[in-house]
Write a structure and sequence with these properties.
Elements: H1 2-9, H2 16-28, H3 32-41, H4 47-59, H5 63-77
Helix pairs in contact: 2-3, 2-4, 3-4
Amino acid sequence: MQLHGLALKLGLTQELMMNNSLVDMYSKCGCLPEAQVLFDMIDNKNVVSWNSMMGDSLKKEMLVEHLISCERCKWRRS
């Protein structure tokens, strides 16, 4: 969590690579709610963003919740 605080302090939270890394970090630490909040805040998601959330969701058996999140993103874009 200190890493996320440092990223905020340095103004790096607008960088996609940093956000992807933070989502991956939270997911791997078992902090899936925090990872989901951060994932939802990413405007310009790419393959790495989706794989970070989906891979760890599968490991934690939360695929259904992730698929619902994917559907919400589809509706927002249309």
